[in-house]
Amino acid sequence: MDNLYVIKGQLQQVYAKYSKFIDKGVQFILALAAFYMINHDLGFMSLLSNPLITLGLAVICAFLPMIVTVLAAAVLILVQMAAVSLGIMAVTAAVFVIMFVFYVRFSPKTALVILLTPLAFLFHIPYVIPVAFGLVGAPSSVVAIICGTIVYYMIDYVKTSASALESGGATAMISQLMTYLQQVFQNKEMIITIIAFVIVLFLVYQVRRMAISHAWKSASAAGAVVSIVIMAAGSAALDVKISYPELILGNVAAVIVGLILELLFFAVDYSRTESVQYEDDEYYYYVKAVPKIVVAAPEKTVKRINRRTENQETEIINTDEIRRKSAEDGEARKEGEKKPGKRKAAGKPRSPRKKESQITGNMDQLLLTRSLQKELHLDEEERND
């Protein structure tokens, strides 16, 4: 776990340094995925379904606010539906206008939720959305989730009924519109899904705010279990066919996403929890303090070791031996001068103290010379020569 927290800290540092580029990159990926989903499911107009058009729209939307991406996706849906039926396009446009006028323009930050919900349906993990935004969002996100769910079911109906809508002609437009409204807004599967999403989001939000240990894990698990129960019960009560493997795997994915979000946004150490009690003139206060987990990245120390050559030899200089030999040479020279028959050297005789200082100076000069030769590797160059 420490390695995960170290990686988290490194990611935070990278994001703090390159946040502008990362945000634009994520927005580009979301826009590209949304436009691809629309053109893949509603590819009735071949010009807009061109991959270059999709890529160009995603690049443009990456440098604009997220609300512009949502509006561009809405326009793309309307244009694709116009190639099938103008009446279906008009009804869908009216629904989009209601969503924008009464909600999106007051909460532009929730435009991301409207964009992510149909994408989650496309990847067969829609149950991730209420769990994720129950953990990191607010109860107001439920309106955006409902809008995104309605948008997905409108796209799904046009996709599955495109052949019938095209063959009906202009005379059957009224019946097509009535069928479209009935199939979308009276869709039992959509109603069960919206009810499950609303209940799960409020449940997850309430549990993760409770003063209990492992609140986020408990909230994710509770949301997944309640989602499975509601969808299964609604399917049995309203006779709606749902895919149970997709239901189970989708909620497992929701729990995994909840654990990842906890690691990123709510990493605490419950083993060091402290309960504090204090009072003032009017109240008693009971405070539960849970410290955050902060793991510092280990510092790397680099130790440089100089490689020794294979033929390098080490010479040890014994200063005591050199002093002893110098002293013996001095004594021998004195005895030779005292012997009779020997001719004394001309000039003033040197004093013993002066001779001893000269010997010591010679020895120090020899030691300094040997030390410099060893440091500058002059002895190795002479040996090699």
TrEMBL record:
Does Transmembrane helix appear among the keywords?
A: yes
Region Disordered: start-end pairs: 316-385
Compositionally biased region (Polar residues): 358-371
Biased composition, Basic residues: where in the chain? 340-353
Highest taxon of the lineage? Bacteria
Provide the species name: Faecalicatena fissicatena
Keyword line: Membrane, Transmembrane, Transmembrane helix
Determine if Membrane is one of this entry's keywords: yes
Write the protein's name. Answer: ABC transporter permease
Which residue stretches does the UniProt record annotate as biased composition, category Basic and acidic residues?
A: 320-339
